[in-house]
Amino acid sequence: MTNETVFNMTKQPKNMVVIGAGVIGMELAQAMQRLGTPVTVMGDGKVLPKEDEDMAEIVKEQMIKDGVTFRLDVAEYQKIELTGKILDSGYPEMKMTILEKSNSGPTEISFDALLVAAGRRPNVAGMDLEKAGVEYDTKVGLIVNDKLQTTNSKVYGVGDCCSQYKFTHAADFMARAVIKNALFFGSEKMSKLLIPYATFTSPEIASVGLYAQDIEEKGMEYRIIEKHFKDNDRAICDSSTAGFVRFRIDAKTDTILGASIVGTNAGNMISEITLAMVSGTGLGKLAAVIHPYPTTAEAIRQAGDLYNKTRLTNTVKQILRGVIKIQR
After folding, report:
1. Mean pLDDT across the stretch 120-146?
2. Is 142 helix (H, G, I), strand (E, B) or coil?
3. What is the predicted pLDDT for the residue at 160?
4. 149: which DSSP letter?
5. Is the distance from CB of 121 to CB of 140 less than 8 angstroms?
6. Are 311 and 287 a contacting pair, CB within 8 Å?
7. Mapped to the 3 state alphabet, what secondary structure does 28-84 carry?
8. Of 60, 83, 256, 265, which one has the greatest count of Cβ atoms within 10 A?
9. Are 81 and 94 in contact (CB under 8 A)?
10. Nearest one of 244, 253, 229 to 308, comparing CA atoms
């Protein structure tokens, strides 16, 4: 099965194997586990590799508590075969043989449902695009410029077939840009779109902007400001204290370069930070945004407070002490 055909199941499998520990694999693995099907996630490295490792580990730890088994050192998937048994689920039993880096010999795993979530390729071949002068790559899809024009300037591309951002909301705003460019002489650019995204596990992970690795590759200096939900009153009341808000800001100013949230409703919370980045609002100014109490979104404002405290240098503190003495 894939992420499209998995929803065609009409019976609950006895055991499921998920190949791939990315977004789709993790989301569906946890969902099936919580519905009562034991799930094993297989891969050859970290879970949610795009996200910060400590944040991804929080999700993994919760999934282990849910009962999900992880085998993340698979070196080779050797074969899959039917055992000849039909299980109570009505599905035929299968057996997979794998080689793991930590084991000298092969390992056999039995299951009756297999979800392949190891990535997707754009479906662009076999369409005679060459006749239209549209260049493409079978791995990355249509070749487009910053205005989303293909090599045939009258043909545009949007969505998964030409973008690394394979999200519904990304395709939506790419389409909006194309409409402006194609019909109204617009100058919209893909590089100007700030696209947040979320992984809908429990807890969720949401991110926007640049990760630490991106910032370092650009040769920029930055610092990190974090606020943990264990210190947030709403999270304490809801018993959802796992996770935190992480801002990556310019080293000398409060300009937000990127941010990530791991925790309950992180996908809803990331939009406030996205708006701040689009409008050029710095982290220090977010401290002045009044939030209802108690809400987990207060952690965003509180992170602004933490940033403002860093501005209290020893010189500023001495001046404040002097002012207080005068006022007394």
Report:
1. 94
2. strand
3. 94
4. B
5. no
6. no
7. HHHHHHHCCCCEEEECCCCCCCCCCHHHHHHHHHHHHHHCCEEECCEEEEEEEEEEE
8. 256
9. yes
10. 253
